Amino acid sequence: MVSICRWEAKQILARNLMLTQVVNFQKGNALVLDPQFVHGIKCIVLDSSLDKEFVAKAITLPGEGEIMDIMEIADPDAVHVVRSFIRKQLASES
After folding, report:
1. Where is the Peptidase M1 alanyl aminopeptidase C-terminal domain (predicted)?
2. Residue 21 class from Cβ within 10 Å (0-12 exposed, 13-18 middle, 19+ buried)?
3. Distance, CA of 62 to CA of 19 (rounded, Å)
């Protein structure tokens, strides 16, 4: 149960982070990855008590379609840029 709560909490944070960064991108502002989000992902990856299958699911970002579904006006290009940016930044942090 704790693992499911951790996964859902991470998904909520990731959705909020992605939506914030989409707005930044649309305004022409620089994309920034929240260090606390990075720290949370690292904690999940480094927690040896977690099942590897769960870890793989837990560090997967919400899909582009999921983000567009909760936007008032979907912007596929912005969502794609933001999701790609976050994935690349997380990969470079590991």
Report:
1. 4-93
2. buried
3. 11
| Closest among 35, 34, 18, 14 to 26, alpha carbons compared | 18
Over residues 1-59, the pLDDT tens digits come to 667 787 888 899 999 999 999 999 999 999 999 999 999 999 999 999 999 998 999 89
- From the list 69, 73, 79, 90, the residue with the least C-alpha distance to 20 is 79
Per DSSP, the chain holds a count of helices (H) and strands (E) of: 5, 0
Q: Which two tokens stand for residue 15?
A: 């959705």
Q: Is 22 exposed, middle or buried (0-12, 13-18, 19+ CB in 10 A)?
A: buried
CA dist 58 and 9 (Å) reads 10
- Estimate the crossing angle of helix 2-26 against helix 35-46, to 10 degrees: 150
